[in-house]
Structure formats: structure tokens, C-alpha cells
Amino acid sequence: MEYCDTAASIFDFNSKVNRHAPELPSTDGIEYPRAAAWASESLNNVLKDEKGRQLFRVFLHDSLAEENLSFIESYEKFKHMTSPADKKQYIQEFFEKYSPYVNLSSVALQKIKETAAEDDPNPTAFLPAVKEVNRLLENDQFPRFKRSDVYINFLEKVMPRSYADKWATSFEALVGRYYFRYFLRNIHAEENLRFWEAVIEYKQTKNKSTAMLNMGRNIQKQYLVEGTTNEVC
């Protein structure tokens, strides 16, 4: 079985994923606290929520990154396959549907190509690719989702009036903070809010962990060093 070169297949019309826009989840049966909690939960927990997963999918589609989530979902089915023929068919579909759009290292791709040549492909060969995509979703796309119009607009639909009243006293109210950000952006002061959000995230990180140390260094480098683009006043 032959597989197309990844770089070349990006420009192959026949390999493009069908990009029908996913539907927004219904607001029926969901209250504001449940939806607002997605902003502080892990990606894994949000994906366990049917409506949270669907809303994240809509965001990824708008960001031209839906294939990342689709790949993770498809792998969950692949790892339970027992038929060698089914496994080979999945790998063929991977190179046609996902490889041109999912940003993987050459090492991860090589693992997949090696198992594709085997009589009975081993699903564990996909683990490096799965880890890379999960890392991208967790560290890049999920944080942007929590600040996105898609998420904020959904929150507005399920938000009681009593929550909107909190805007006058606290910008910690999530939707209110969204509009406050627009105001700060117009007066060229958004870095102050980004600094505050980074500190909140830092405080929620496991104490004395490597992630906490790295985050602290990044906060200092981005916001507290004189002359940086995001220096806070």
C-alpha cells in the first residue's frame, strides 16, 4: 500500500476534508453554571460534556483546526479494531483525511508509516501522534476557545440577568470580562488584563511543579521585563 507524501498532499484537492460546519449545541437543558465551568475545567472534562465537546468542535472548525479533534476521536475507535484489514483501511484514511491538516512531527509520522507496512498494524504506533495533537489542543486551542466569540456568545444565551448585574462590580464575571477586554484593547491596555489572567492561571497550577516554574518565568518575561511589548504599567 502506498501513501502520498504529506507535504504534497496538502495541495491535493481529493485529500481535503469535507468541511461542513458543525451545528452549535442547543441551549436546552443546560444552565449557566455548567457552561461557565468549562472556562476553569480541563479540556478532558469539557470533552466529556456532550455540549461542551460540540461547542469546542464549532470553535475548531472556525479556526480551521477541527481535524485535530476528529483525529483524536477516530483513534479511540481505531485502537479497538481487531481486523488487520480494518486497521489498514483506517491508516489509509488517516493519510487522506488527517495527515495533510494535523501538524505532526516527522518522528510521529514515521512511526505510523512503519506500522502501516506491517501485516497487522499496531495502534500503539499512533501514540506519539495522539500525544502531540492532545498537547496542541490543551495548550493552544483550548485556551483560545475559552476567550472566543463562540464560547462567550453561547454563555450569553444561557446567562440569567442576575449574572449580568455582577459586571458593575467585578470584571471576574466571565462575559463581562470579555467586553472589558474590548474596552482595554481600544485604549491599548489589554496587556494588564492578560497579565491578571496569567497570574490567576499560575496560582491554580500545582505548587512547585515544573509547569508552575515555567509559567512563572514566562509571566516575568512577557509582562514584567522593562521594554517588552506586553509590559504592564
Structure description:
By secondary structure, the protein is mainly alpha-helical. The chain folds into two domains: 32-150, Regulator of G-protein Signalling 4, domain 2; 167-224, no CATH class. The chain is 61% helix and 0% strand. The chain contains 13 helices and no strands. It has helices at 6-9, 32-36, 43-48, 50-62, 66-78, 84-98, 106-116, 127-146, 149-158, 161-164, 174-186, 190-203, 210-224. The longest helix has 20 residues, at 127-146. The N and C termini lie far apart (60 Å). Residues 1-17 have low confidence and may be disordered.
Helix content: 55-70%
Shape: globular
Write the CATH fold name of the largest domain. Answer: Regulator of G-protein Signalling 4, domain 2
Instruction: Report on the biggest sheet.
Output: none
Q: Which structural class do the helices and strands define? A: mainly alpha
Strand content: under 5%
Counted by DSSP, the helix tally is 13
The averaged pLDDT comes out at 82
Based on the structure given, which CATH architecture of the largest domain is correct? Orthogonal Bundle
Give me the Rg, rounded: 21 Å
Number of domains: 2
Number of strands: 0
For the record, give the distance between the C-alpha atoms at the N and C termini, rounded to a whole number: 60 Å
What's the SSE pattern? HHHHHHHHHHHHH
Report the CATH superfamily of the largest domain: Regulator of G-protein Signalling 4, domain 2
The CATH class of the largest domain, by name, is: Mainly Alpha
Uncertain ranges = 1-17
